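Practice record 12: protein with zinc ion.
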Amino acid sequence: MANTVIIRWQRILAAATQVAERHVDLCLSSMPTGHRGALLRQGQRIIIYIDLDHAKSEADVIAVMAHELAHLVVGTAEHDDRWRQQMDSIQEYLRKALRGVSDEKKETQAENGCTGSSDPAH
Ligand SMILES: [Zn+2]
């Protein structure tokens, strides 16, 4: 259990959709491409490719998502100052979106703990 990695894909995707202001599709693959991630456009469709050989944690996934979403928002493939500023801002936004969820989870676990400890058998 200690090595279990939980990645909240639905929550990340919901936050990414808010950043992109449109639906975003994810393409997860371990197929070697030499890229951690990529932003693909098929007409109006936005697809973010994530290389699972590199994205081993939720923080890795957020980093890739922020990188690619910044390209979308800034509208360039360059890694210039404008892109970097946008990427930092998006990364913070995604982290905050997930922080809210983990706080809710902690409250639920605390409630469960109280219920368990009130059992006279334990
Ligand atoms: Zn890039």
